[in-house]
Specification:
Elements: H1 5-26, H2 42-45, H3 57-70, H4 75-96, H5 99-105, H6 112-136, H7 153-160
Length: about 160
Amino acid sequence: MRHTRTATIATVAIAFGLALTAIGMNRVLPHEVGGIGSRLTVGADTWASGTAISPPLVFLVVTGLLAAITMRSTQGGARAASWLAVLTVVAIVAGLMEPVQQRIILFQDYDLLLALTLYASYVAWIALAVASVMRSRDASDSPATGTAPALAPAVGAAAAA
């Protein structure tokens, strides 16, 4: 129960991502970065491209898997945390490139509830990136740098005889 902060924040961020996915599909907002999405295929594009206001579902799945691995108190957990930090920063930058999100964040669209939800989502993703960096830099997972353990007295006595 030592490394649960990253997984907890990831759960909140994924919940916001799913809420924004539902809103984006309801309002039929196709993605505009990486090619113009069609209003007819918003549901199909949600898996790999996301909507104009939500991350792709495959990103949310990978985030959940990496967050689950970060709970392990091994080098693999720290490595998964560093990959989660990189993935989260890339997703934040990609989301900010969406013209619809830019209009909402800059209050050019008059939808206060959607703006607050989007802001809360970005706060959660930034908190996840920071928590992942903190988890990846955790010194308690590094291998011991001390000397080799001493032999047990019985083994030492048997070796001397």
